[in-house]
Amino acid sequence: MEKQNSATSIIRTKSDQLVETMAAALAAMKSPMSSSSEAGFGGGPESSSNLSRKSSRRLAAASPGRSIGRNTHIRKSRSAQMKLDLDDLSSGAALSRASSASLGLSFSFTGFTMPPDDIADSRPFSDDEIPEDLEAGMHKKKIQTEPTIPIYLKFTSVTYKVVLKGVTSTVEKDILNGITGSVDPGEVLALMGPSGSGKTTLLSLLGGRVRVPAPGGSVTYNDQPYSKLLKSRIGFVTQDDVLFPHLTVKETLTYAALLRLPRTLTKEEKKKRALDVIYELGLERCQDTMIGGSFVRGVSGGEKKRVSIGNEIIINPSLLFLDEPTSGLDSTTALRIIDTLHDIAEAGKTVVTTIHQPSSRLFLKFNKLILLGKGSLLYFGQASEAMVYFSSIGCTPLIAMNPAEFMLDLANGNVNDISVPSELEDKVQMENSETEMKGGKPAPAVVHEYLVEAYETRVSESEKKKLMDPIPIDEKIKSKLCSAKREWGTNWCDQYSILVRRGLRERRHDYFSWLRITQVIATATILGLLWWQSGGNSSTELKDQAGLLFFIAVFWGFFPVFTAIFTFPQERAMLSKERAADMYRLSAYFVARTTSDLPLDLLLPVVFLAVVYFMAGLRTDAGSFFLTMLTVFLCIIAAQGLGLAIGATLMDLKRATTLASVTVMTFMLAGGYFVKFQYSYHGFATSRLTITPTNFF
Ligand SMILES: Nc1ncnc2c1ncn2[C@@H]1O[C@H](COP(=O)(O)OP(=O)(O)OP(=O)(O)O)[C@@H](O)[C@H]1O
């Protein structure tokens, strides 16, 4: 009681809170071992789980109600600070929680309501005192998301192999060896492990992104196998941000909303949803900035990642998968993203994310954890109990370490600063050289084998049994997941028109690129000067004009084939991402992509011909000019169609380039033959050469 009173007095003023936080930091720094044990390190497994239970109780207490007003995250931070008690003061986690709460991105999926007393208490603080959240912005609005069907994800003994074809032989490579686990709505499951341990493969399998070859084991969603109907309930954020570089943040999210949201919503409502997501993810300050790419400077890495997340949460998915959402980001931005995920989960969604090397603050935010090593399961369970488990099998850190770092070291077989069980030490002494590394430590392979075996014998079976338990969900809701019809967000025509508009916006810079325009005008002018007023009736003059026509045919055969051939291979990643999310019909995409470039692709030849035709002094009547133009158009359409077809068939840049070269050579030959034909057909009878469709056919 006394403790509580003193805690209350401590939290009255802001400066007191700072002192408190500093005290916790000092305490944590002074005794690393003790603080580490409190945060869940080897020495104090109990305290680890206590701590995590405490923090989750706090989160649970904070969730109901969920009213979001101005400066939600400020309130959250104040509220979190106010809830510090003396027990927490001595713990490193108190510092972690206080700071994470004060930095945290408030997300209205969860909402956050301060008890009335807290609100009253918070008045003395002025908003000016709180530094503005520069990266994430302030979050003021609450997304009105419809309730989604909760999805319980279970996976048992998931195995996955690939066949590697060599020159002389084929080998099977095991990527995943019997991975079992589960995650419920409201939870965040983290898949952790060293590089190449199989995190992305497992995530892709769980997200239904890897279908061939069929994996072993079973993956169920509310006890049902994967079906295409789930696509609209699953959000999948890939490791690389697959976004159009020339669209702005707002355009990206608006087009996603227009294509993905159900027909029941009006266009205006869909646009509003996009804006809401922008505010929710703190992207309002960069909403009109281009995404950017290799050649265009755009939004920052953290903002790009948030746009990718926004692209998926816009559909209000029941299940959200993320592949390394924090890689390449600083720890504060990473923390904000994980906070966002946490908030999404609290709104009843199921979240699965891979993570490379989380800070201890991040690590504490995960509900469940899967630790993988070389494709095998080293741990599955509550993240807060992972340290308890490893200490129970005799592995504890010898120095203060971030729990994630400790586990990754273990998964890599690096036990330099880790105490290993006597059983493993004995093994090293008995078997000697092959199993022993420098300094008497066991070799990584031995450590890996020990960890896999330990998990198999101590935990695996009981976890598998737990997965047999029925999920606490109504049969009606369960059946709803399977009975729903696959529905497109919009009809074919709307999909077509949205894709055309999006294509025009994305490529507006290409169309009006001065480089391209200058290239065409400069070529036309040079040709015009070389063939300046070349008209005449002599055979030499006609041969001369034949050369010009050959050049025009090759130029307008070459140009479109090369641009068209790369169209589909270049958008391959985007196409597969969007098709995997059932955003539109394949036919709508192909027709839109094929036709959207055409008007602007036909504009340049008009400019080109207007310059060359009159400079070279070809036949000057309108009929001849327009027929020549029509012939060039037909040439372009044919070349473009061919280029698109090749690109679409191959979907591979390297092969497409080879085929493009072959096609261009063919065009050159065809152009040569065409001019030769013209020449011999007209002979010396015509005074001027003109390409006309009649001659062409
Ligand atoms: N189709 C494939 N063909 C050959 N090897 C593959 C294939 N898919 C995955 N692998 C291999 O499987 C292993 C696991 O790959 P995965 O991408 O899942 O690892 P990861 O844990 O996500 O790695 P990272 O953290 O570096 O992204 C790697 O060694 C990878 O080379």
From TrEMBL:
The name this protein goes by in its record: ABC transporter G family member 22 isoform X1
TM annotation in the entry: 511-534, 546-568, 598-616, 622-644, 656-675
The family this protein is said to belong to: Belongs to the ABC transporter superfamily. ABCG family. Eye pigment precursor importer (TC 3.A.1.204) subfamily.
GO CC field: membrane
Domain ABC transporter: 153-399
Signal peptide (UniProt feature, chain positions): none
Pfam families (alphabetical): ABC2_membrane (PF01061), ABC2_membrane_7 (PF19055), ABC_tran (PF00005)
Membrane topology value: Multi-pass membrane protein
UniProt keyword annotations, A-Z: ATP-binding, Membrane, Nucleotide-binding, Transmembrane, Transmembrane helix, Transport
InterPro entries: AAA+_ATPase (IPR003593), ABC2_TM (IPR013525), ABC_transporter-like_ATP-bd (IPR003439), ABC_transporter-like_CS (IPR017871), ABCG_dom (IPR043926), ABCG_transporters (IPR050352), P-loop_NTPase (IPR027417)
Compartmental location: Membrane
Top-level taxonomic group: Eukaryota
Residue span of region Disordered: 29-79
PROSITE patterns: ABC_TRANSPORTER_1, ABC_TRANSPORTER_2
Any one Gene Ontology molecular-function term assigned to this protein's record: ATP hydrolysis activity
Residue spans of biased composition, Low complexity class: 47-63
